[in-house]
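@channel sequence for tomorrow's demo:
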Amino acid sequence: MDKSGLSMIQLMSHGYSWFQEGLMAAFAETEYGNLSKADLQLLANLDCGETYASELARRMKVSRQAIGKLLKNLVADGYVSLETDPKRANTKVIVITDAGRQLVFDAIAELNRLEEELAKRIGESDARALRRALEADWGDPPKPE
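structure tokens (generated this afternoon):
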């Protein structure tokens, strides 16, 4: 597919999808095969300790109701638990379980493998340049003039 006429945001979206599809394909025949792209995105946005659903919704730019639906599957699968916040008894916090941590470690390993494969395909120097560009501080988006 010729991508020379695509906008930067379209190109970045294609790149994101490439990694996401690669991860989904790697997990398809494992114990993680029942996870959706949305499940993996939610897990990627969790803090190492505790996370509030409202904070997660803000990060993912979705409603708290959407987070609640996603959490049901992840709780049922044992990747996260909902626990009472010791500071606010009427609030639940999302806590990643040991099984969830293992899933995250396995996902990171697979994403590293995909990054190595990308470097083989586009060349080491281009892969390093891409990483440097994405790691750079872009600052806030410019305001319209």
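heads up for whoever presents: The first helix runs from residue 8 to 27.
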